[in-house]
Amino acid sequence: MAAKKSFVVWHKEPELLGPAKPTPQEIKELSDIDDQKGLRFHFCMIMFYRANPLMKAKDPVKAIRDALAEALVWYYPLAGRLIHGPRDKLMVDCCAQGISFIEADCNFSLEDLGDAIKPPCLYSKEFLYEVPGSYEILGCPLMVVQVTRLICGGFVVAIHVNHVLADGLGLSQFVKAVGELAQGASSPSTKPVWKRELLTAKHLPLQKTYDHTEYGIVGHNSTIDPHNLVSRSFFFGPKEMKAMRQKLPPQTKPTSKFDMITACIWICRTRALEFDGDETVGVICAINVRDKGPPELRDGYYGNAVVFPAAVVKAGRLLCLFGSPLEYAVELIEKAKSRVSEEYVRSKVNFMDSKGRPPLLRSRSSIIVTDLSRIGFDEMDFGWGKPVYGGTMDGSASATAITHARYRNSDGEDAVVVPVFLPAAAMKKFEEEMKKFTALEPCEVIEIPSKSFLKPAL
User: Fold this and answer.
1) Which of 42, 163, 212, 404 is labelled catalytic?
2) Does the global pTM surpass 0.70?
3) Residue 93 and residue 58 share a domain
4) Tell me, what CATH number does 321's domain have?
5) Is 225 noted as a catalytic residue in this protein?
6) 11-51 pLDDT, tens digit each
7) Per the domain annotation, does 38 fall within a domain?
């Protein structure tokens, strides 16, 4: 039997990649949403591509490097550095120092990688080399991009970006521009819009005050040891969604896939961590508000345009055996999301300004849920076609954050995959609870002469 080969990636020295042309040298202010302390971190995305015989003569590393330099002419603040301003606000020094770019080669093919490409990606640390200091906030590149050639002719593009500069949709817009420029476009189809001042208290005076529970959920506020976690990815395809809908009363109104999956995970997590009945638990949803703010946010804005409404309840009430816990959890999530309006955005911006832009509460009691399954990374084309997988790389790698990603399995089923991180004992319980939600209920087979049909069991 042939020995299984070891996975190896050879990295070249990281280089600073600046805009292809001179860009304005200026200081730019951030919005009050951009600058909240809870977004002062880097998030990662990854895309895996097959070989394309029509592109055999082209090197993906060179094509993407050149296109990145062109895109940075349009998105020149991304080539700058964060600096401190007054009142502990961050600002962008548009100094054109550049992003960090890494060229690499791997001894595996896409086939060799198999399911390791789904989040959390097994080889994430190799596909996105951690440049020393690159995860700092001040004075370091705002973005790192690594392009890794595979031995089959395919390649991998991995990116991490400082969240202060862009949200998921904003990064998606930038990467789409890189793809268009790599394929010969003279400019991006969507022109970038900065206008961060539109989401500041100065521009959006308060009209109505909301209770922003997400910044002060009271409950069991102890944290979960990040060094004692195991991860599992949960697949929600047509069968799993049908099974979950069976757990709802027949008269229940149609429910979004995001709300169903999030409610299911919230219940399973609450049971797995064994909260006392009187402890408060919460689920915080990241909601895009580009259509809830000034019109300039609706096309081309690549800053953070996200708010975080929370559904909060006592654990005992969430897990109540009377009625349907899933229906109740979905209702709580839908109600929290329905609060988001133009006035809610104004209130959030003014809350950030008056409270010193606090972070969201990250504790054992609550989870933050982000839907990255529909922001377009599975459509990114640099000239080689769409990726086999495109989306979150590590699924946040946190016990207090959940990320939905789009994934197509080996049977061709288009689904949502959700990586979950929990302590080992809690994960075992979580898996048991999840199986109850995703198992189809038995069907009764009715035999009739010359005919048979399936009738759902009552």
Assistant:
1) 163
2) yes
3) yes
4) 3.30.559.10
5) no
6) 999 999 999 999 999 999 999 999 999 899 999 999 999 99
7) yes
